[in-house]
From TrEMBL:
Its EC number is 2.4.1.-. Keywords: Glycosyltransferase, Transferase. Pfam families: Glyco_trans_1_4. This is Glycosyl transferase, group 1 family protein. One of its GO terms (molecular function) is glycosyltransferase activity.
Length: 410
């Protein structure tokens, strides 16, 4: 009988109340538990006061150490059937050890988002130049990220747009990729507040994530002053985990630009807001705040980068505008016009029901995992470049890691 153990190696301990990444991790855990897997979550990061209590959902936790042979002993004893790497930097650090000690374990990479896409876009914004997909080909982060994708048996991608980039720009074999977005199942339409019960504008996002800090700066400097001129009774509420001093300094009660910091209940603050504003100038993956707004019955105004990977062929639950003058105009229109607001709310429900319900994806993913486990050798033989990279990267990373190990002993 096969050992039905999944080892997740986390970049951080999940914080679902701090970011969509934490929510995503808990969704993956629940998915594998439904299939009967015992789950061990290991990380070299420090736990915080906001880390989720994984033991409460029957997940075994293990603190591990970077560049240490103790991990080899740990994984040998555990002998997991599947190893899931939480982002490519974790695969870089631990992938070769998994490869050496558990060669028959299925290796899955959860990308979260394409880091290279986010960082290349960020660089373009800072330089005030237009982003081109071809810019990714010159990115050192992209080279590392794509190498990691190739070394793994399967990579989970949360955005269809990013699947397209990987296949068309980087020429990745689609058999190495699997589309598995965030899922949102609970829409209590009849229990939500209506147009007249909601008030004000909201933004929410983890401030350790650079796109969120940039979006708040755009709100403060370019967007909110104009909205406030037209809607003097409205308030802009800013929520987010880990606000730095530079974020807190933007607080201005007189301007009705309120920095609240971490939300005790993110869903509650989004539910009570009339509109969520998300002027994202760069980023990647799926923006959890926008999906949560749909779930809460709160229309939104965002940019094309904000809406990327979410709307598909459906109408947005509000407006998508890259030009900030149009962004401001649509935000005011949506705030004032009940019929447009109601229609936008319905659009959000349609997107969630047709594109993000878990039953659209769960069985397809689990079937894919089962198929790969049964055909692993053949699957790997068809990915020769991945095997080549795994061989050479394992050697180079291994000796660097061993050097650090020896250095730490001195």
């Amino acid at each position: 009988m096969k050992n039905k153990t999944l080892l997740i190696i986390g970049l951080v301990w999940p914080e679902p109340k701090s970011s969509a990444a934490g929510t995503r991790m808990l969704q993956l855990i629940a998915l594998f538990q439904k299939k009967g897997f015992a789950i061990v979550f290991a990380s070299a990061a420090q736990e915080s006061d906001f880390s989720y209590d994984l033991k409460s959902i029957n997940v075994v936790t293990k603190k591990i150490v970077l560049n240490s042979n103790s991990f080899n002993d740990f994984i040998n004893e555990l002998n997991p059937e599947i190893v899931l790497f939480d982002r490519f930097v974790i695969e870089e650090q631990f992938g070769w050890r998994v490869y050496e000690n558990c060669p028959n374990a299925l290796r899955i990479l959860d990308t979260e988002d394409l880091h290279s896409l986010r960082l290349t876009r960020q660089n373009a914004v800072k330089k005030n130049i237009a982003f081109e997909l071809s810019d990714l080909l010159a990115s050192d982060i992209a080279k590392r990220e794509i190498a990691s994708v190739l070394r793994c048996d399967l990579s989970l991608i949360i955005s269809e747009f990013e699947i397209k980039i990987l296949v068309e720009t980087f020429k990745i074999d689609p058999n190495l990729l699997h589309y598995l977005p965030l899922s949102y199942d609970f829409i209590l339409e009849n229990e939500l507040l209506d147009f007249h019960q909601k008030k004000d504008f909201v933004f929410i996002g983890n401030f350790l994530h650079e796109p969120n800090w940039d979006a708040v700066k755009q709100l403060k400097e370019k967007i909110w002053p104009e909205i406030r001129n037209q809607l003097p009774d409205a308030t802009m509420h800013i929520y987010g985990a880990y606000p730095s001093q530079k974020v807190l300094q933007l607080h201005n009660k007189k301007e009705k630009f309120i920095i609240h910091g971490r939300a005790k209940n993110a869903n509650e603050v989004i539910v009570n807001a009339k509109i969520l504003l998300a002027p994202m100038r760069f980023g990647a993956g799926l923006k959890g705040k926008l999906l949560e707004a749909m779930q809460a019955g709160t229309p939104s105004v965002t940019t094309n980068i904000g809406a990327e990977g979410i709307k598909g062929n459906y109408n947005w639950n509000g407006f998508v505008e890259d030009d900030f003058l149009a962004f401001i105009s649509k935000a005011v229109l949506l705030y004032c016009e009940e019929a447009i607001w109601n229609e936008s709310q319905k659009n959000g429900f349609e997107i969630l029901k047709n594109r993000f319900k878990s039953d659209l994806f769960e069985n397809l993913f689990l079937d894919r995992v089962c198929f790969l486990q049964s055909n692993l050798e053949n699957h790997r033989n068809l990915n020769f470049m991945g095997r080549l990279l795994l061989h050479h990267t394992a050697l180079s990373t291994k000796y660097m890691s061993r050097w650090i190990e020896e250095k730490n002993r001195l």
